[in-house]
């Protein structure tokens, strides 16, 4: 019965006032999250893009910006990919068809785009990777492909046709996921869509991981892609093992005090393998707090090299900070600094860009939630919370700024 009810769920819904998902978040997570695609008409009704295509192009020419330019030659079905920073003159040479510009981390570059994130507060914030913005000229596309993470695709300007293969969610079997070997990007060799939609500004398409899809611009358009962070098991294991190795006591070694005479001196027998397992178990993170701290540090490290530049912050003692904030200045967290927190015994662990701080729960919750700190917030922090902020300010994870610089 459950399978039949799930199969009957629609693939297209109309948003309701106060419900950009067209339903309560709990219902969306139960019926769609990592299960089936969903088109939400009018998710953000009347949405007007806070940026213009020229703004995106200008940013793609700057150092430190993660940008790609994808061009498609229809005659030969050839695809070319260029990476930023892009030369300014290239945009005059592209023409008005069949190219796409993609810029990552636009929620960090533009506070108006970051204002979309509270609408997705039903998801763990540490799971959100970034908002990527793509501009596509008419006919522009990145080809039929799959993503290995959840993504929400909000149409912000113009119209884009999305074709989606939802055959797995429809009970028709898993689609083929073989890639072409004649192009620079991972494009599907075969693509047979089950759904075909044209999105206009304010419409939003949700896609679970590994759902084949293909978007083509009907006219010049902007699409905002809210992508989730989904580290592979290989990434998790690599960092976990590196952490274990770095923290392991050299005195912990393979031991065989119970060794029996060897029947064959060249054989690695079952008893030896049992001792190997015992040696490995001696260094694994059996303590839940240790495991939690490892994951908190891991998940708050930004995926690219961009960082605040340690040492270029403003080192101030807590009493100096108190005076600065009382004078009307604000503390602004660096947009690329990832944060999260976790309950640990009677306190909390607050994770900042791979660091862990022990704080009262109230401090950890407040500092994780607030990108801007004023005198009132500062006054509510414990001494440990203030010390934490002062240290992070010195490292560049916070900046002292005027209220005029605060995001609207």
Features:
single chain, 408 residues, alpha+beta, nine-stranded mixed beta sheet, three-stranded antiparallel beta sheet, 13 helices, 27% helix, 23% strand, globular, disordered N terminus
Account of the protein in words:
The chain contains 13 helices and 18 strands. It has helices spanning 2-7, 25-31, 53-60, 90-93, 106-109, 111-114, 233-247, 270-281, 288-299, 318-326, 361-369, 375-380, 383-395, and strands at residues 12-14, 38-41, 67-73, 78-83, 99-103, 128-136, 151-157, 160-164, 195-199, 204-207, 213-217, 221-228, 330-333, 339-344, 347-352, 355-359, 372-373, 398-401. The strands form 4 sheets. A 9-stranded mixed sheet has the order 1-2-10-7-12-6-5-3-4. Strands 9-8-11 form a 3-stranded antiparallel sheet, with no helix packed on it. The protein has a 3-stranded antiparallel sheet with strand order 17-13-18. Strand 3 and strand 4 (78-83) form a beta hairpin. The model is unreliable at 1-6 (pLDDT under 50).
